Amino acid sequence: MGKNLKQTLYEGDWLRLVRIDHWESCERTHGQGMAVIIIAVTPDDHVLFVEQFRVPLGARTIEMPAGLVGDDHAQDTLEDAARRELIEETGWSPGKVEVLLVGPTSSGMSNERIAFVRARELTKVGDGGGVDNENITVHTVPRSDAPRWLMQKQAEGFELDLKLWAGLWMIERNPDGSAVTP
Known about the structure:
Elements: E1 6-11, E2 15-20, E3 23-28, E4 34-40, E5 46-54, E6 59-63, E7 66-68, H1 78-90, E8 92-104, E9 113-124, E10 137-142, H2 146-155, E11 159-160, H3 163-173
Parallel strand pairs: 4-9, 6-11
Antiparallel strand pairs: 1-2, 2-3, 4-7, 5-6, 5-10, 8-9
């Protein structure tokens, strides 16, 4: 590798395109460069999924609830961001949250990292739907039907966030909510 020379190629409101030596990648300009994905199962054993239109894909997606850490709240912790995003997007409030795993989202393209956060002891407190015209549709799907339901949504033309499968794996290997251990 060279001298690790970093050059800003473009900076927008939310992203910065940089070149480090010969490698181009992007960075977030707000928050902590982190996002949370919330693995949430209701008391009646339904997994919470969200549906929304994603401009970069030009399509509706199915995802687990998620959001940026520190974008509007500078002192955010991973747990604080997970609580807030789960309520905003789904209308469910967690009694407990715990960070299970942190890692890069697309290590060849971005420095962003994501934390899988397990939300437990859920209570319905609102309708969800997101903020600022996110137009989120909430889906509560029986855990046992979730893989089939997701594949049906893909057949209907929805884009599936591949992190869904990791979240489902964590639920199945960790049904009592205890931390995942290698």
